[in-house]
Design brief:
Number of strands: 0
Radius of gyration: 17 Å
CATH class: Mainly Alpha
Oligomer: single chain
Distance between the termini: 19 Å
Helix content: over 70%
């Protein structure tokens, strides 16, 4: 399951917010705040997607369905939790919020990836 839909939306927001900014026009090396953090989220998503696919392939139909439902619920929780983490850290909007949100997402995705890896190591083939 692709978990990067919200990341794609964030990338579009970056392009809109910074696509024609004067900073970008004046500095060819300008990168919008949060660009590195967004790249880290993308890398984490690629890893979790790969582990998730391996796990689903190793499970039977009922277990695979349960995993899919759990993952969908986890994605909603991850986004709400990342928002809370960013706000508790003092972010209220703008680039600070984007950076803190992306950092929180990366941390949560990496934690979930470890959980899925554990399931993968314990799963028997269907």
């Amino acid at each position: 399951m692709k978990t990067s839909l919200s990341i794609a939306a964030l990338a579009v927001a970056f392009q809109i917010a910074f696509g024609v900014s004067s900073s970008a026009q004046n500095d060819p090396n300008f990168t919008p705040p949060g660009t590195e953090e967004l790249a880290a989220v993308e890398r984490a998503n690629a890893t979790i997607d790969a582990v998730y696919a391996q796990l689903r392939n190793k499970l039977g139909p009922e277990e695979s369905k349960s995993l899919q439902e759990a993952q969908r619920a986890w994605i909603k929780w991850r986004d709400a939790e990342a928002d809370l983490i960013a706000r508790l850290g003092g972010a209220v909007g703008g680039s600070g919020m984007r950076v803190d949100f992306a950092n929180a997402q990366t941390k949560l995705i990496n934690q979930r990836t470890e959980v899925l890896k554990k399931y993968l190591s314990e799963a028997s083939s269907p």
